[in-house]
Design brief:
single chain; 170 residues; mainly alpha; Mitochondrial Import Receptor Subunit Tom20, Chain A; 78% helix; mitochondrion outer membrane; mitochondrion
């Protein structure tokens, strides 16, 4: 008798759950902002997929180093911000695809042009594995030197944040 009661109770519970799901799905779809939010989410997904497609079509640089012409002018703050965001995105995508060398190179590019590297390094330390983070730490000095060489005459603005970063990490 208790087995039959359990089956009936579970059937009633399951059907109530389905009714609950249908009710709130209908309520969600009838919300005034539903179509607007759905459109925004689809546009965001489309732009993200376009970025992934664009990145998958680019070929790796071979040795993992970024050419000097990729660095923006260090006096142009907007170009540095755009470069920073692009390098972070490319680095994340490369790491997600398993390309550790190229991913750490792009992340190191982002750290080098960042206005306050200790903050971004703490974020990367918490989100990356220890092996990938160590590889990133190894790449930063060489990329920092390349960035300093590519930015003509603005070595004080480039080296000051990295000196703070070096003291914090070691």
């Amino acid at each position: 008798m208790s087995r039959l009661a359990f089956l009936i109770a579970s059937a009633i519970g399951g059907s109530l759950f389905l009714v609950y799901c249908f009710y709130f799905d209908r309520k969600r779809r009838n919300h005034p902002d539903y179509k607007k939010k759905l459109r925004e989410r689809r546009e965001t997904q489309k732009s993200v997929s376009e970025i992934f497609q664009e990145l998958s079509q680019t070929s790796p640089t071979g040795n993992g180093d970024s050419p000097l012409e990729d660095f923006p002018d260090s006096s142009d703050k907007l170009a540095l911000q755009v470069f920073f965001m692009r390098e972070l995105q490319i680095g994340e995508v490369c790491l997600a695809r398993g390309e550790v060398e190229e991913g750490t190179t792009h992340l190191a590019n982002a750290v080098v042009v960042c206005g306050y590297p200790p903050r971004i390094m703490e974020l990367l330390r918490s989100s990356l594995s220890s092996v990938v983070f160590e590889r990133l730490l190894q790449k930063i000095p060489s990329i920092s030197a390349k960035f300093a060489a590519s930015s003509k005459g603005s070595d004080s603005s480039v080296r000051a944040p990295l000196a703070v970063f070096d003291e914090d990490v070691e």
